[in-house]
Amino acid sequence: MTDVLADYAQEHGPHTxxxxxxxxxxxxxxxxxxxxxxxxxxxxxxxRYGIARERSAGTVRRELGVLRAAINHxxxxxxxxxxxxxxxxxxxxxxxxxxxxxxAAALLRAALREPRVMPLFVLLGLYTGQRKEAILxxxxxxxxxxxxxxxxxxxxxxxxxxxxSKIPIPPKLLPHLRRARLRGTEMGFVINENGHRLxxxxxxxxxACRKAGLESVSPHVLRHTCATWLMQKGVRMxxxxxxxGMTTETLERVYGSHHPDYLKSAAEALS
Length: 271
Prior knowledge:
Blueprint (H helix, E strand, L loop, with lengths): L1 H10 L7 H15 L9 H11 L3 H20 L24 H11 L5 H12 L3 H5 L6 E2 L4 E3 L14 E3 L5 H8 L10 E2 L2 E2 L4 H11 L7 H13 L4 H8 L3 H8 L8 H6 L2
Antiparallel strand pairs: 1-2, 2-3, 4-5
């Protein structure tokens, strides 16, 4: 089983946008599945993996998804005579954690006491609603401060189901980008440390959240916050979905209740 995982990480991982995520999942999987065969991947074994892993249902689901992909990869390469079903736990309900304006202000104040790239990351997250990886991989060549556009699609990068947007720069974000642009190089990363791309900002972000007195806030909450603010402002679903790089169905299902027109016609029909 560990050979299947290792082959997948080595052969498929380098062709993804985030190979270290696959490596992290494989490390967690290998500890449990070492010494087992593919034939032992049963529904009960997957359930026991979730118990032994002692992680959230979302993490276990993602890691077992990597196990499924690794087995399918080995089957396509002719290393297995058949693929087996990998049973994933139910998808957890989306979190409804988002920041109020005062919480966002507190986070920005706290971020100022972290390395100077941290406030810009927070601002990009709040005002563009893009995922962490899209922000961390953003280069100045993708930012047109004169034409007021940002293209979060990296040139030559493989397109995935996690959509990225090409959007106008929000007016409140533009002056911050103009100032940061003066310190950057044409092909350099917008979020960087001494010119080098930051692989992750978990520790700095968590430290800023502690200083701001915020709980249950991850970088992804910035995306939730942007989507929620757009809904609260009554932005049309189609426009908001395009801005965020998600489907209108997902936007309505997860954030639609924050829109002022949510179920309004139904309530008015009963008045």
